[in-house]
Amino acid sequence: MKKLLLLLCTCLALGQLIAQGPPPGSPGQNGHLYGKVVDSAGHGIARASVMILKISKEPTTGKPRETLLKGISSQNNGDFSAEDLPTGSPLKLSITSIGYSPLTQVITLTPQTSDKDLGDLKLTTATKLMQEVVVTASKPAMSLDMDKKVFNVAKDIVSAGGTGLDVLKNVPSVNVDIDGNITMRGASPQIMVDGKPTTLTLDEIPSDAIESIEVITNPSAKYDASGGGAGILNIVLKKNRKQGYNGSIRANADSHGATGLGAGLNFRENKINFSADLNYRTIRDWMSGSTERTTLDASPNTYIGEQELDTTRGYLMFERFGLDYFVSNRTTLSLTGFAMQHSAHSTSAISMNTDSLYPNGTVYQYGQEHIAAPHTFSGHGATVGMKHLFAKDKEEWTADISYFSGNATNSSLYVTNQYGDKAESVLLSKQLQRIQGSGNDQNIILQTDYTDPLTSKMILETGLRAAIQDRLNINNNYTYIPDSTAWLLIPSAASNYKSASEVYAAYATLSSSIGNFTYKVGLRAESSKYHGTLLNSGQSFGNQYPISLFPSLFFSQKLGGDQELQLSYTRRVNRPNFSQLVPYTDSSNKLNITRGNPALVPEFTQSIELSWLKNFPGRNTLMGSVYYKYTDHLITNYIIADTDYSTGATTLINTFINANSSSSVGAELTTQNTLTKWWDLSANVNVYHSEINAGNESGISQLALWSWFGKASTNFKLPSGFALQVSGMYQSKTNLPVNTNSNQPGPPSIMSQNASQGYIRPFYAVDLGLKKTLLNNKITLMLSYNDIFKSRIQDQYSYSEYFVQDNRRIRNPQLLRFNFTYNFGKVDASLFHRKNNNMASESD
After folding, report:
1. 210 with 236: CB under 8 angstroms?
2. What is the mean pLDDT of the segment spanning 246-262?
3. Distances in Å between the alpha carbon of 472 and those of 466, 582, 744?
4. What angle do CA 375, 339, 748 make, to 5 degrees?
5. Which of 18, 202, 600, 674 could form a disulfide with 164 if both were Cys (CB 3.0 to 4.6 A apart)?
């Protein structure tokens, strides 16, 4: 709390200093005029023509004469500034802008008042109105920059009506497996929503709420250092600041029986902008899988064949709202919030065949397991923020505080039946196990950032941040005692703990340019600690890092032919999540029992990347990158033979340890092409190679393997308001992921891959989408068909000193989804003449 109070006081002190603004200029012979061009509602007018003329007399006739001294345009927020003006002579200020009546003023500067702020100069709308203008331009599907790639997914057809995971399946550079685990360049990225960590999983965010995806492969010191070497995935939600009122109504249904409804409304008038959005959908999910395992660690060896069918039924409701108050032309206060409710009932039907491989024959057993697992999750959060723009171009200050909270419950019943030598012949035994749990997750983030253009080419960015997380988890494991017809709590198998983590950070970056050469250097300092306590035993675990430094270097050189070359270096951290730390044994999957390791420490990754960017005429872009990553104390999976506390038997358990190090090298190529006015194509190919240095630990090293994956998406604008989108991906043979580090709240659900060597066999998938617009784009109809060849299969081969295993799974293939959208509203046409305070772009 002392650190938190100190940070708050520092933020307030910084705010008071910055809010005072720059001191007035000293009197002198050089005059300075500045101000802001605004409309009748007080909003800044961009690109207004500002001319300053000197008024004098003709020497011979004595008639007035006007001489042009300065001709400039107002900035996006309406600001303008003119220097080196004469004092002691009358000056004429003339301001014009299309759609407004001209404004003129006569001003005389004196040596005592050579620096003059003209304040807000209001233009009135011209009496002759312009004819209605229909804007048909749209944002490009992808924009490439050296530090990030931005993918505009608001109009993505194949993911409409789905979730955030459906969106990411079609985003280049990103891999999504059938369990929803996300990787970039072979590692798990830091997931953010609107620039902040979130308690939500991506399948809890509707695709209709997402505006764009920012892929930041090598983040600078300005960004949170978490996420290891995989970088950051920032989910940007839709924002609407159109003048007047507007909204939409949405509905969808799919071939599995799921349905969805949504509605959004935005209202803006004068100083107030309000928006609200509601999404509701039912969940109809299924997964089919099979596993074949031969054990090698016991005599006799056994062969296990398992067939599994998982189904989930439930609903998800997601609500968002936003409120902006424009205090002045330069200061905006914002309040945003969300709430969501997720309730589902999952069932699993598993059949198991077991052969004991004796030398003179086999002993055959058959078993069935039925799992019923209702679970809920509710989350809510809010962010209060302030943004202040200064008169100096690009100088600004932002500050905000965010609060996120989530509550989870689960109740699972496991019924395991063992039969004789054939399916359901004679019931030999019946075992009942019940797990009941709940969890609470609370997060507070305080952040302030200040940008100061020291010169016309040099920019200083600084900021402070505090992230505080508290988590409570109750997870009790019971077994049924037939003799007493009672449920017996197994304390050693319970996972009841509380945990807390704190991260405090400060950063500074300095960027400048010398001709065509640009550099940006930065340093981030983070102090972090985490602590957890097992409530049953009182055992504590944790770690503390007083100060960790994370430098970043970016160098860029513009070349001829509209090309650019960039070299970057960063250092980042990946802290273990509490599911990986808590020594709780999750035995829900008998072939993949997992347990956390409280002795884990964070892993640190150093990354270097060389990128080349080429812009071709006609909105065609090509970007190539080569990269290298080195990680110390890699967090990886590991197999141990230990006691399963729920049964008391010795079994194989997947856990986590810190390996010595790992390294990876790769190359990536991304292209965006506008082939014709009606056809565009984007593609991405990533080739990479990684290896693990296990040190003295055996059984965790991976064989070095070159892998690659590619994605492509093409869009066709067809006659009569039709549009067609085709997306495809291919994943080559690749090593099993090191870990997923999902860091989700609530009861532990590690969902790791088997801690063994092995690979995932190649697979591909193709999605198709068709869109039709009606009534001047007021109505949109979309039809999508996902995984049309039923080929998005995770086919995994794994082996260790204990077993050899094949696992094959598929989830929701050949899904047909229909979407309907109706847009309504009235927009103030005068908005086309102005920009709103340099805020975020308006949604289409």
Report:
1. yes
2. 94
3. 20, 12, 13
4. 35
5. 202
The alpha carbon torsion through 169, 171, 175, 180 (nearest 10 deg) reads -40
Of the candidates 78, 76, 77, 70, the one whose C-alpha atom is nearest the C-alpha of residue 33 is 70
Say how far apart CA 310 and CA 348 lie, in whole Å: 4
Give every CB contact of residue 317 below 8 A, 6+ residues apart in sequence.
278, 279, 280, 340, 341, 342
CA angle 358, 588, 205 (to 5 degrees): 140
Q: Which residues contact 725 (CB under 8 A, 6 or more apart)?
A: 156, 157, 158, 713, 714, 715, 716, 768, 769, 770, 771
Model pLDDT for residues 297-343, shown as the tens digit of each residue: 777 788 889 999 999 999 999 999 999 998 887 889 999 999 999 99
Token pair of 169, please?
């399946």
Q: At which residue do the structure tokens 């995994």 appear? A: 796
In this prediction, residues 74-98 reach a mean pLDDT of 84
Reading the block at residue 427, the tokens are 């019931």
pTM of the model: 0.76
Residue 533: how many other CB atoms lie within 10 Å = 16
Which tens digits make up the pLDDT trace of 676-687? 989 999 999 999
pLDDT band at 361 (very low <50, low <70, confident <90, very high): low
Rounded Cα–Cα distance for residues 200 and 192 (Å): 10
**What mean pLDDT is predicted for residues 54-75?**
81
* Pairwise CA distance, residues 224 & 743, whole Å: 16
Structural contact between residues 263 and 248, judged by C-beta atoms closer than 8 angstroms: yes
User: Side chain identity at 475, as an amino acid letter?
Assistant: N
Cα–Cα distance for residue pair 745/438, rounded to 1 Å: 10
Is the pLDDT at 23 greater than 60? The verdict is no
> Could you give the maximum distance between any two Cα atoms of the chain, in Å?
126
Q: How confident is the model at residue 756 (pLDDT cuts 50, 70, 90)?
A: low
What is the structure's pLDDT at 702? 60
8 Å CB contact between 30 and 70: no
Asked if residue 677 lies in contact with residue 717, where contact means CB atoms within 8 angstroms, the answer is yes
Looking at residues 800-806, what average pLDDT do you find? 85
31-38 sheet: strands from edge to edge: 79-85, 31-38, 115-122
Encoded tokens for 455: 């010169």
CB burial of 179-201 (b: ≥16 within 10 Å; e: otherwise) equals ebbbbbbbbbbbbbbebbbbbbb
End-to-end C-alpha distance for the chain, whole angstroms: 44
Residue 399 predicted with pLDDT over 50: yes
Chain mean position to CA 275: 22
pLDDT bracket for residue 713 (50, 70, 90): very high
Exposure letters 227-265 (e unless 16+ CB within 10 A, then b): bbbbbbbbbbbbbbbbbebbbbebebbbebebebebebb
Cβ burial, residue 623 (10 Å; 0-12/13-18/19+): buried
Cα separation, 782 vs 773, whole angstroms: 9
pLDDT at 297: 72
User: Which of 141, 224, 148 lies closest to 625 in space, CA to CA?
Assistant: 148
User: Taking all residues of the chain, what is their mean pLDDT, rounded to a whole number?
Assistant: 82
Q: For residue range 637-659, what is the model confidence (pLDDT) as tens digits?
A: 777 778 776 667 778 888 888 88
Strands (E), 390-454: 396-419, 427-453
Q: Residue 755: which of 783, 724, 796, 720 has the closest Cα?
A: 796
